[in-house]
Design goal:
It is found in: Cell outer membrane. This is OmpA family protein. There is one protein chain. This protein is of the alpha+beta class. The protein has two domains: 182 residues, no CATH class; 238 residues, 2-Layer Sandwich (60s Ribosomal Protein L30, Chain: A), CATH 3.30.1330. The protein has a four-stranded mixed beta sheet. Strands 1-2 form a two-stranded antiparallel ribbon. Helix 15 links the parallel strand 8 and strand 9. Helix 2 packs across helix 3, helix 6 crosses helix 7 and helix 14 crosses helix 15. 43% of the residues are buried.
C-alpha cells in the first residue's frame, strides 16, 4: 500500500468506481472526481483533529477497524444501502459540528455539484479514509499508539491536499488538540484572529495582512520619500497597506461618509452619487494598486465583535448598505450597487488568493453573518491584455475562489452567487500599467437584503 495516506485513499477510486458513483449520485464523473479530491483531505483533517484529543487514538483505531471489517470498498457507489451510512453521517456531523453544512457547501461549490450529492460523496470519502486506515493497521498489526504516530507523519501530505486553490500551506496545519473541531473547517489563520489596538494618529497600523494609515489632523502632507537603502522596506509598507478604492465597479455607490455612524443621516434614496477620485499608490515592483481606505474606524457588528477598517473600506461600505434602509437593491439596473474588495488579490495569471487577502474575506463573511437574510453576488474582472476567452475564464475562477473563501468562513453557498466578466466594465485606462492594475479586481453586489 502507498505510504501517502491521501494517495492511498484516492487509489481506491478507479475509473470504474467513479463511473458507478456518478450514476448513483446523478452527477458527472468530472464533478465526482473533483468532489472526492476535496472531500478526502477534509475528512482526514477532521479525523486528525479529533484523534489528537483525549481518547482520540482509541476512537481512530476502533472506527478504522470497523470500516475495514465491514468491507465497504465494493459498496461505495451505493453506500446509502449499507448499515454504515447512518453511522458515517453521524460521525461527520460530530466531527464538523456547526461547520458540517459549510463543509458540504465547500465540496459542492468547488466541484459544481448539488449539495445532496456533495453530502453523499463526503460520506463515501469518510468510508474510504477509515477503510484505508483500518487496512493499514491490520496489515501492519498496529496498536493505537502506533497507528496514531504513523497518522501524524501524514500531516504535511494532508495539508498540501487541502484546497490548493486557497493557497493553504503545511505550516497552517499544526497540533491543535484543544481546538474545537469545527474551528478547523471555518477558521481563519491565527494571525487574523488577533485584532490590533487602536492606532495612534500619524502612524501606519498593520491589520492582519494589510494596514491603514491615520494622518495627523493638522496636516495632509504626504510622507517623505524613503531613502534608497530602505527601498525594500517601503515596498513592504505599501504592500501591507492594502486597501482597495473608494467607489469603482459597475457603477458608483452613493458616496459613503467617514464613519459608520455618519450613515444615520445618509442621503435619501434617489440622490445622485457623488464622484470621488481613486486614492492610492501603484506598486510597480508588484504590478499592484495599493488603495487608501481612509481614516481608520472601529466597526462594531451585531454579535459584539469589532473590525478595525477604513471609513471607505469594503467592509464599512457593505455593512452600511445592508444596515441602512436608505440604500435599496436596484432589481432593474443590475450594473448598480457593486462594491469592490479593496484588499483581495490573486497571484498573477492564477485564481490563487494571496495570503493578505484572507483578512478582508473573513471580515466580509462576518458582516454577512450579521445579516442572515442577505444574498450577494461576486464578480471577477481582468484587464484587457491577453486572450479574451482566457480572461473570462480566469475571472470566473477568481470569483468562484472568493466565493469558496466565504463558504470556508461559514457563509452557506445558498447565499452566494458568482460570475466572471473578463475585461468588461473596466474602470480605468487599459493602456497604462496603473489602469490595468485597477481593472483587475473582485466586486460584490447585494442582491437581497
Amino acid at each position: 500500500m502507498k505510504t501517502n495516506v491521501v494517495e492511498a485513499v484516492k487509489f481506491c477510486f478507479t475509473s470504474k468506481v467513479i463511473n458507478h458513483i456518478s450514476l448513483a449520485v446523478d452527477e458527472s464523473e468530472k464533478g465526482v472526481e473533483k468532489a472526492l479530491e476535496k472531500a478526502i483531505p477534509l475528512v482526514l483533517e477532521s479525523l486528525m483533529l479529533r484523534a489528537e484529543r483525549t481518547g482520540g487514538p482509541e476512537m481512530l483505531l476502533d472506527l478504522a477497524r470497523e470500516a475495514y471489517t465491514a468491507n465497504l470498498f465494493p459498496h461505495f457507489p451505493h453506500l446509502e444501502t449499507t448499515a454504515w451510512y447512518a453511522k458515517g453521517a453521524s460521525l461527520m456531523q460530530n466531527l464538523a459540528g456547526e461547520g458540517y453544512e459549510g463543509l458540504i457547501n465547500r465540496i459542492s461549490i468547488v466541484s459544481s455539484i448539488r449539495p445532496s450529492a456533495g453530502q453523499s460523496l463526503l460520506l463515501i470519502a469518510a468510508a474510504a479514509v477509515l477503510s484505508v486506515l483500518g487496512k493499514y493497521a491490520a496489515e501492519n498489526e498496529l496498536s493505537q499508539a502506533e497507528l496514531m504516530n504513523w497518522f501524524r507523519t501524514q500531516k504535511a501530505e494532508i495539508a498540501m491536499a487541502l484546497f490548493p486553490d486557497m493557497n493553504r500551506r503545511p505550516t497552517e496545519f499544526s497540533d491543535r488538540p484543544d481546538t474545537q473541531l469545527n474551528a478547523s473547517i471555518t477558521s481563519r489563520p491565527a494571525a487574523m484572529a488577533r485584532r490590533p489596538a487602536p492606532a495612534e494618529q500619524g502612524i501606519w497600523n498593520p491589520i492582519g495582512g494589510g494596514a491603514t494609515y491615520t494622518p495627523q489632523p493638522e496636516t495632509h502632507a504626504p510622507a517623505p520619500s524613503p531613502a534608497p537603502s530602505f527601498r525594500w522596506q517601503w515596498a513592504l509598507v505599501l504592500l501591507m497597506a492594502v486597501c482597495l478604492g473608494y467607489y469603482f465597479g459597475h457603477d458608483q455607490l452613493t458616496t459613503i461618509p467617514g464613519t459608520a455612524a455618519a450613515f444615520a443621516t445618509a442621503p435619501p434614496e434617489g440622490t445622485p452619487a457623488v464622484a470621488a477620485s481613486t486614492k492610492g499608490v501603484y506598486d510597480k515592483d508588484r504590478d499592484t494598486y495599493i488603495y487608501d481606505t481612509g481614516q481608520p474606524i472601529i466597526l462594531t457588528l451585531a454579535n459584539g465583535t469589532t473590525q478595525k477598517v477604513g471609513a471607505n473600506s469594503t467592509e464599512n461600505r457593505l455593512y452600511t448598505f445592508l444596515s441602512d434602509p436608505a440604500f435599496q437593491v436596484d432589481s432593474v439596473n443590475r450594473t448598480k450597487g457593486w462594491i469592490n474588495f479593496d484588499r483581495v488579490y490573486f497571484e498573477a495569471g492564477k485564481a490563487t488568493l494571496t495570503p493578505e487577502s484572507q483578512l478582508q474575506l473573513h471580515n466580509v463573511a462576518e458582516v454577512l453573518k450579521s445579516f442572515p437574510k442577505a444574498t450577494v453576488k461576486l464578480g471577477g474582472y481582468t484587464d484587457s491584455t491577453g486572450d479574451a476567452a482566457k480572461n473570462l475564464q480566469i475571472s470566473e475562477q477568481r470569483a468562484k475562489t472568493a466565493a469558496l473563501a466565504l463558504v470556508k468562513e461559514g457563509i452557506p453557498f445558498s447565499r452566494l452567487q458568482y460570475k466572471g466578466y473578463g475585461s468588461k466594465y473596466f474602470v480605468a485606462d487599459n493602456t497604462t500599467l496603473e489602469g490595468r492594475a485597477l481593472n483587475r479586481r473582485i466586486s460584490v453586489r447585494v442582491i437581497n437584503k
